[in-house]
Amino acid sequence: MQLIDWIIILIYLFGTMALGLLLSHQETKTDDEDDKPTSIVYNFIAGRNLPWWLAGTSMAATTFSIDTPLYICGVVATRGIAGNWEWWSFGIAHIVLIYVFAGLWRRSEMVTDAELTELRYGGRTAAILRATKAFLFAVPINCIGIGYAMLAMVKVVDALQLWQSLGFDPGEATKLWTVIALSVFVLIYTGVSGLWGVVVTDFFQFFLGLFGAMLVAVIAVNDAGGVRELIPNVQQITDFDVLSFIPITNNGGLNFTWNDAAGITATTFSAYIFVQWWSFRRSDGGGEFVQRLLAVKGETDEAAKKEAEKATWFFNILHYIVRTWPWIITALAAMVLLPNLEDAELAYPTLMLNYLPSVVLGLVVASLIAAFMSTISTSINWGASYLTNDLYRRFFRPDATDQELTDAVRLASLLVTVLGSIAAFYATDVRTVFRLVIAIGTGPGLVLILRWFWWRINAAAELSAMVTGFLIGLVTTINPAINNIFPDFGWRLLGISVLTALVWITVMYLTPPEDEQTLLNFYEKVRPGGIGWQYQQYKSGLEPAQNLQNDLLKVVAATLVMFGSMFAIGGFLLLQSITGFVSLTIAIIGGFWLRKLSKKRTLPMQDPEFHDVY
Which of 131, 186, 432, 602 has the greatest number of beta carbons closer than 10 A? Predict the structure, then answer.
């Protein structure tokens, strides 16, 4: 790294800090002081005033951390392009979020997803569920995520020899404290500017990160001899089908078989497609995404719903269609340019150091720091929202003043940062921690979906699902003997999902349903579709605010559009013209179908013979 590279990095850091501090003076505009949002609403959901494009970009920035390109280099090198289904599969859940859950979340008008539990359920069990969920999401789950983002930063600092470029060689502890210092830097502007500071800086950080990823991809492919030389070379140096998008072989007609040369097993691939996306704790949105959806503006329910849907669509386009291929192409180039690299996750920063010229290197390093900071800032704000809104205000100081809540937000932000830094000391490699995050979050997804559409789901069922999935995922990760029960990661995901389902279904039928008034209040507020709330529809006289059947068809059509578009781009980039044209055709068909479905309106409530279901 040359002096000019450091100057570029410092300009970025000071610019980000200035923007964050400037946004600390952002004030909501309203004529009536009584109508101004509380500090909780302002800090965590930006006064419900985010435009869709800013919310969508922030969602994409949140999922683009410094660990992401490292993780994808490791995945492609060990399991091929098809190994990316480990995160591609969540695209199905994100499409479901657009048409099924975005409007429901926005109508709930919650501050956090944990707060929803006491709208959907009632009594002491609901309070225990809210507190448990807030603690698990804010501390172990969130801090593990912060820790492995810090681990990735440590690996980048090491591979790029940033300290060495300044003339001295610090030990490992000093490198880690450097990452912690960056987190404190983020903490300053996150703590004073709230969600507005997070999402606005996310906007600039995301596009800087995307620009950096494209620069690395172009230069790496060029140094590998161009795409036409890269494709045969990368296939030649691997003993599996590294270039396959979907590891299934067509033997003519409708005869499809598994590609034995694939880098992943059939059970693991099947678990990604058919289990992981709905079994994971974010099956109905969850966490940071819901925070953005709750923050979008809209003077009416319908306007807010449309803003939430547009925000989620924009996220999907940026996250899957736009951002996928720069990372994957860089990973393929790294396999050719750095064939003897022991740690495939280090391929990305090693490529940068060896092949990027001065100035460009400074820009790309700044882009990686931006990716790191966007994820950390979101995690800090998100974790603090649970600790402040769902623990401190709910259980300790329900009558807290705005100033007390503001102080609690800042203290909670500091606590989350410290705990995340501690977690970084125990992280070893990005892929292992990523799978730990998936494992401890697998299991409760089905009950989270069903609670919106079936009155019988109760607080005890959700609580047991969440705790069981977390414990099984944790034990199977840290105990190799138990983990050896499962032949591969796919069987492990299936095992966690089945065991968790057996527990929560048993608990649900052994415990009473929620009381009638609680269920009626929830329905009147959110008005979900489907047949699971027929009694509440009848009692309230309110029609559902969604046509669930039509929305599910939209999900299928939109899935064709998104994955068809993504694979069309990949097919043409990697000279797989048949894949490109077939995928493009699928995307176009899905687009026409989606347009037709979008013209339909919510069906009026019918008047069948209702019976007392209690």
Answer: 186
pTM score, two decimals?
0.86
CB 85 within 8 A of CB 273: yes
Q: What's the pLDDT at 195?
A: 66
Q: Rounded distance, CA 376 to CA 371, Å?
A: 9
Least confident of 23-27, 164-168, 587-591: 23-27
Gap between the Cα atoms of 305 and 110, Å rounded: 14
CB 547, CB 600: distance < 8 Å:
yes
Distance CA 340, CA 335 (A): 9
Judge contact between 356 and 214, C-beta under 8 A.
no
For the domain made up of 3-22+49-514, the CATH class stated in words is mainly alpha
- Stated as kind and residue range, the H or E segment containing 248 is strand 248-250
- Residue closest to 62 by CA, chosen among 281, 287, 215: 287
Largest CA distance in the chain: 81
What is the Cα–Cα distance from 432 to 453, expressed in whole angstroms?
35
Helix-strand-coil split of the chain, %, nearest 5: 75, 0, 25
In tens, the pLDDT along 289-324 reads 888 888 888 778 788 888 989 999 999 999 999 999
- What is the spatial distance between Cα 112 and Cα 382, in angstroms, rounded to a whole number? 9
**Partners of 257 in the β-ladder:** 249
DSSP letters spanning 293-334 = HHHB--SSHHHHHHHHHHHHHHHHIIIIIITHHHHHHHHHHH
Give dist(CA 10, CA 408) in Å, integer: 31
- Nearest alpha carbon to residue 174 among 186, 159, 188, 157: 157
CB atoms within 10 A of CB 177: 13
pLDDT, average across residues 160-170: 75
pLDDT per position as a tens digit, 196-235 = 777 888 888 888 888 989 999 999 999 999 999 999 999 8
The full length of the chain comes to: 614
- What is the C-alpha separation between 567 and 320, in angstroms, rounded? 10
- Alpha-carbon gap, residue 291 to 379, rounded angstroms: 11
C-alpha 152/C-alpha 427 separation (Å) is 10
| Amino acid sitting at position 341 | L
CB atoms under 10 Å from CB of 3, counted, come to 11
Domain locations in the chain?
3-22+49-514
